């Protein structure tokens, strides 16, 4: 089984059983460390939940992954949701002084959330310039989120010409009803995993 498939399988099991993202992250880390073959192997990931106890918000645990981009549906402002307390990637959580702590962000009806891998932001054009994802997202906004994503993907291909790294984009939109009317079912989404190897 590939590393990506392993983490996704562990995520599906843990997300069904565990009440919070911190515990899910711990389960993923434990499962992954049992199968890693090199001490420098790790996987970055972002875990996202729509908590029923605080409607209109997201809970995020960022495990070494690029920060999601939030789009406010009223102002169209694009904001990177950087974690206030960065956590190590999966496979390295035992090196952190404490368990990862979720942070919250607004997510109201009409808002969007873009999750992506670093193959997107590290893509360079022929002159060596990085792809400016937040700017291109703002320029690609369309009432239909599928059109937004298609346009953004086209911008990326035009910038990179010949992509050399795996890349993924996932655009979520809060389609309502009003957050206060949610049925209390906890929903989670994950982007990643993105296998990586670095030396300490």
Write down the overall mean pLDDT: 86
- The gross shape turns out to be globular
Q: Which quaternary structure do these chains form?
A: single chain
Order of helices and strands: HHEEEEEEHHHEE
* Spatial order of the strands forming the largest sheet: 5-2-1-8
As a whole number of angstroms, the C-alpha radius of gyration is 17 Å
Q: What is the CA–CA distance across the termini?
A: 26 Å
Q: What is the number of beta strands?
A: 8
Structure description:
By secondary structure, the chain is an alpha+beta fold. 28% of the residues lie in helices and 24% in strands. It contains five helices and eight strands. It has a four-stranded antiparallel β-sheet, covered by helices on one side. A four-stranded antiparallel β-sheet has the order 4-3-6-7. The longest helix is centred in the C-terminal third of the chain and has 16 residues, at 145-160. The chain is globular and about 40 Å long. Residues 179-200 have low confidence and may be disordered.
Task: Walk me through the topology.
Elements: H1 3-17, H2 21-33, E1 41-50, E2 57-63, E3 69-71, E4 78-80, E5 103-106, E6 112-116, H3 118-121, H4 133-140, H5 145-160, E7 169-173, E8 187-197
Antiparallel strand pairs: 1-2, 1-8, 2-5, 3-4, 3-6, 6-7
Briefly say what this structure is.
This protein is 28% helix and 24% strand.
Notable characteristics:
alpha+beta, four-stranded antiparallel β-sheet, about 200 residues, 5 helices
């Amino acid at each position: 089984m590939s590393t990506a498939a392993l983490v996704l399988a562990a995520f599906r099991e843990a997300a069904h059983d565990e009440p919070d993202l911190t515990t899910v992250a711990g389960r993923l880390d434990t499962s992954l460390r049992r199968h890693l073959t090199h001490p420098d192997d790790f996987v970055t990931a972002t875990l996202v939940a729509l908590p029923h106890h605080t409607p209109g918000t997201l809970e995020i645990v960022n495990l070494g992954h690029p920060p999601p981009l939030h789009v406010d549906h009223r102002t169209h402002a694009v904001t990177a949701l950087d974690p206030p307390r960065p956590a190590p990637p999966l496979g390295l959580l035992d090196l952190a002084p404490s368990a990862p702590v979720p942070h919250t962000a607004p997510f109201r009806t009409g808002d969007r959330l873009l999750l992506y891998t670093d193959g997107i932001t590290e893509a360079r054009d022929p002159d060596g310039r990085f792809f400016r994802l937040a700017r291109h997202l703002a320029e690609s906004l369309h009432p239909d989120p599928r059109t937004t994503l298609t346009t953004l993907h086209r911008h990326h291909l035009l910038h990179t010409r010949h992509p050399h790294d795996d890349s993924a984009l996932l655009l979520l939109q809060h389609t309502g009803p009003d957050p206060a009317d949610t049925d209390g079912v906890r929903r989670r989404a994950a982007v990643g995993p993105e296998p990586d190897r670095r030396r300490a």
